[in-house]
Hints:
Layout: E1 2-7, H1 12-24, E2 28-34, E3 53-57, H2 63-69, E4 76-79, H3 86-91, H4 94-113, E5 118-124, H5 150-169, E6 173-178, E7 180-182, H6 191-200, E8 205-208, E9 214-219, H7 220-233, E10 239-242, E11 247-249, H8 250-261, E12 268-271, H9 286-292, H10 300-313, H11 315-321, H12 324-334
Parallel strand pairs: 1-2, 1-4, 2-3, 4-5, 5-6, 6-10, 7-9, 8-12
Antiparallel strand pairs: 9-11
Helix pairs in contact: 1-7, 4-5, 6-8
The structure holds nicotinamide-adenine-dinucleotide and 2'deoxy-thymidine-5'-diphospho-alpha-D-glucose.
Amino acid sequence: MHKLFITGGAGFIGSAFVRLILAEISSCEITNFDALTYAGNLDNLQGLDESRHRFVHGDIADREAVLNALEEGTDAIINFAAESHVDRSIASAHEFLRTNILGTQVLLDAARERHVPRFVQISTDEVMGSLPEDENAFFTEDSPLAPNNPYAASKAAAEHMVNAAHHTYGLDTVITRCGNNYGPRQFPEKFIPLILSNALEDQSIPLYGDGRNVRDWIYVEDHCRAIMRVFERGRSGEVYNIGARNERRNIDVVKAILDALGKPHELIHHVKDRLGHDRRYAIDPSKVEGDLDWQPVETWESGLEKTIRWYAENGAWIQRARSGAYRDYYTRQYGTEISAR
Ligand code: NAD
Ligand code: DAU
């Protein structure tokens, strides 16, 4: 029996992890601790087996709330909770420092105090900065931490605190660093769900700069399966890079989605570039493939098809996610109303 304490389990990746684990591992029980920020969504948790899933509304930076929710016999804390959107961190970094750094520290302290046997930190490839374009260079576990934006800097700081807890107190920790996830239930501020939700309504799609920035895309369930491997078999104190060897230029991602939907490329609208926009991310996943015997299941084509189908069939979810607060954010970010062409 695994008893897991998942934070951020109402968000995109956390909810995919909770769904997958409950569906595939019958001996697993989950406490899902989430503050339900703008990115947290209880719709993402509909239809789960409630006898093995306990949702607790709480903030990871709140020590008392964490300790109250953390049950005896918990096998691991898996920390997905974060402020996760780069553009929001560029507009204001404060919440990123509070949740991503202080929140992680509260969880580390709680793990020690309650003798939780393993701590899994969900980090990101962005902590390693940006790679040169058109060069045979990849992020490995030995790449130096060189974050370029406030979100990435906060996640790098969190990694340092995780490593400090391991080195100083002997806490059993593992860190995963994944690239760009895509799949159902991703909040439509992120690139692929933004493309989909705008294109489905024939609205223009904002493409930053020249559109040639490269991201390394992975289907969310493949990331979740890799996290489970790292939890079960990862070596204490180590980092595991996770990726599906799937680099794509942004412009090619938009075109692929528009083509699949039968929408015109004229919907693409070049806008001012993101400040400090990282040029290229590309992950060498040899370690997780070789040491932990993990491989992605989905290809880019199969994952994208599933993702497109989900958004096409879940208009009500998109409408609820694109609430008044989202519309305000959109206007601030893009200087235009959501429906403008
Ligand atoms: P998300 O923004 O969709 O979800 C974040 C979740 O965390 C939400 O449910 C939110 O309510 C919750 N949360 C935020 N602040 C909290 C707090 N103080 N206390 C408790 N809960 C809080 O994010 P995501 O895309 O699912 O990312 C999950 C994790 O994976 C993050 O740690 C992120 O850094 C990491 N990651 C994301 C990607 C990606 O492509 N999305 C890639 C690599 C790593
Ligand atoms: O690499 C992992 C990271 O991927 C995660 O750690 C982050 O949590 C996640 O948000 C993501 O960061 P990115 O900044 O790469 O993702 P985003 O979806 O915001 O943007 C993907 C690319 O698309 C990036 O080059 C910027 C571009 N973009 C994005 C938006 C929102 C646009 O061109 N237009 C847009 O409107």
